[in-house]
């Protein structure tokens, strides 16, 4: 082993023994490589467009019998789509028609899921674009009727967005009326069905608000003493404001 090491050491030659033309060639190659990299234009991150969503039936096949799990994966991917390598895309630059299509597919895979509608009413309405806000609110409104007793929270938030961000009281009233007429849960928070009254008051429709409250009181549908007391007190205040 020692003799082999000595032999290899004897075969090593100092750099000074390398022909000058080889050294010059290697130096030139290094200079060319450095110059080429310096002259290249900087890599600019390009935003990818949101792809078209595939048919729901195709996604069901891909899910391999677990559509709920696939729905969660798609939702995570969709929500993170605005953060791409080297670039961050504002939501307002996304194609909302395609976003809505993907949200529909997530709901198709998980019909009991709530998050797609909550994301639509809360996350995707946080854009400085009223048209995109309206697109998302209309999506939430249409989906609400497929399962009112489960999907009311998203439409309730849509009332808030329409009223306070869009300043569109008729639209807020449309959503609030749908909540009052279609949600049949007994343990739903009182304020949900009373949103219609608040919006009518904001619109100056005092008489309509009074008629609505009177109808609720006379219907016998309200049995909770606290809610009855609240509505009666509200009606008395509206009567006092009139006088």
TL;DR?
The protein has 243 residues and is mostly helical. The chain is built from twelve helices and two strands; from the N terminus they run ααααββαααααααα.
How would you characterize the overall build of this protein?
The chain has one domain (about 1-205): Tetratricopeptide repeat domain (Serine Threonine Protein Phosphatase 5, Tetratricopeptide repeat, Alpha Horseshoe). Strands 1-2 form a two-stranded antiparallel sheet. By secondary structure, it is mainly α. Helix content is about 70%, strand content about 0%.
Helix and strand layout, with pairings?
Layout: H1 2-11, H2 20-39, H3 56-62, H4 67-79, E1 83-84, E2 87-88, H5 96-109, H6 115-123, H7 130-144, H8 148-165, H9 169-182, H10 190-202, H11 206-219, H12 225-242
Antiparallel strand pairs: 1-2
CATH topology: Serine Threonine Protein Phosphatase 5, Tetratricopeptide repeat
- Low-confidence segments, given as residue ranges, are 42-47
**DSSP strand count:** 2
Number of domains: 1
Total count of helical runs of at least 4 residues? 12
Please trace the helix and strand order, writing H or E for each element.
HHHHEEHHHHHHHH
CATH superfamily: Tetratricopeptide repeat domain
Q: Main sheet: which strands, in order across?
A: 1-2
- Strand portion, in percent? under 5%
Structural class: mainly alpha
Which overall shape is indicated by the principal axes computed on the Cα atoms?
Answer: elongated
**According to CATH, what is the class?**
Mainly Alpha
Mean pLDDT across residues: 80
Largest sheet: 2 strands, antiparallel
Radius of gyration: 33 Å
